Amino acid sequence: MSTLDEARTTVATGSRVLAAQGILDAFGHLSCRSPERPDHFLISRNLAPAMVSPDDVVELDLDGEQVAGAAPARLFLERFIHGEIYRLRPDVQAIVHSHASPVVPFTLVPGVKLRPICHMCGFLEGTPRPFDVADHAGPASDLLISSRALGRNLAEHLGNARVTLMRAHGYTVVGDSVAQAVYRAIYTMRNCEIELSARVLGEPVFLSPQEAESCERTIGTQCDRAWNLWVHQLHHSEAG
Prior knowledge:
single chain; alpha+beta; 12% strand; globular
């Protein structure tokens, strides 16, 4: 993504891909770091992801404020997830925040750990325990990451991991490209679906840490193949 216009198009396309794949519904969001300024990022205005076009993608600074000179837009309440992760993780180039239902149960049961269960999901190794906003905002919050302080808390909890769960809320994934972040968001949900299905049969065998990292080194290079398929499917469905 060499220009802002190309990056806006990619964010819009990725948002619609995530909606088509059932990762985002009316809520959730995708962002990417600006290709021109690493202290800015691109994200849709407050809009259902399936409806996002390039014209809906706005540029924000890491404080979550819209850049000067642009027409004011209504912004996502949880844009601070993105700004604070970009601030703490210079390696991160794209972020997805989702409430996908198959993942939420893994945020709710104490002692349950999200672990890679198939070779497509090695990136899940090292996922921390679920982030609990109540630890920072008290017992009566709305569970949203609606301030820079809470965004910072979440970013620190994520650490160097690729995914973090969020209690009674959803999950956030990071990647070094939009394609990788989208891939990880989709396959996090699929990993959860596989584990829930496997537990009907008995106690599953998970990938070892060594297997997970080996799988990630190999499969992690194939994100573009999945991305190209999902974009093709999206364009085919939109063409009617």
